[in-house]
């Protein structure tokens, strides 16, 4: 075996100085091949000098002689091939290493730059906050500065209260500031407000280097620098209303959730805006349902919900009103769109889905600034309902949509067979069922006839708390409830209500909305659900019988 290894080793070496030739040597001359084979055969059969065969020295001599018979050209070509193969192999290894190194270096540079950028922003923000605090202290130490600020604040308050306009209303000449103006929705909104007859001034907050195209609309542009408190405060100064277009709703150029607190902190507490409007997205209250649970995998909708809460809390502390408007995906409006294409459907809370044209979304937002129904309201917007065409007048259509926020509305059903007059009488009679033994809700109620319908008023229990929803009512309970004065003994103060009405305009229908909802009144969700389910079932059966 020692000789076999020696053969293989020598086959790859040149005779002169035993230099390496190739991993796979070139074709040898016939005599050389014979010599090598003989050498290998002798090694395999075990022939050696001890057995009377050829010695190792003789075999090596024969091998050198065979290899020396190769001409220089063959040896040079073999060496060239070996060297080329070696170089190519090393080049491939070096190239692969260089690519891996470049990728690693690029990733490391990006990580370092991102971290440095974040740290620099924090340092800059902290530094500017210190500067602002120092400037504020200097102002407070100046009597002249105090007099000027007090006079300006007093003049602004007098203008707000002395013009006969509610505090949440925006006066003529008021300044509307739009953060996220660089988004398609923000740009379209500026055009919609500028094209109206409101007489308001416009200011767009845009990122450094961004361009704004609002056509002929007169609009001031100022930098949006959320990490520079002084600049941001200057950009928001004097605003009668601030509209924040989120990135979730408006796309690239919109305001990210983590930036919202910085905007709110930069508002002037001495002369706060009259309205804060936040443009959000569908699904923030439906993260347990498809498809919104998939969109919330990394907490995007939860962050959006937190930003909404920041707006609401800030408004309750310093502003007369807030409005949260939630949109789905926004698409370009078709060039040949009809006038009704600018319509949208609105509903309280977060119940709608669907895409909306930019024109409809911007039109809705511009109307929010004018409507008292939108004060301290959260609403979702979606495509206009199929029945929207039944209301031809544009003003009447929007009046009917804003009506949904009064209460707010919790149920609406068109009347196809039953006359409105009959529906009013039927509602009053039907509501009495909830005062009869065995028909009560989990919450005590009283019934009162009103114009066009009936008021179902919820009452607190005199003993405190509400009835057990799962408790079964016994015969004794029914007789006790039927005794004169029993409801008076068991019931307490009014605690919210449902208003059930039948209307003929703009179309025949039955509507139910909440009423008497004072601050802190708890919504009776189970009782409301029971009333609405029974009402819908009874109306379906009634209209079916009238056909």
Automatic annotation (TrEMBL):
Keywords: Signal. Residues 1-17 form the signal peptide. It comes from the Eukaryota. This is NAD(P)-binding domain-containing protein. It comes from Haptolina brevifila.
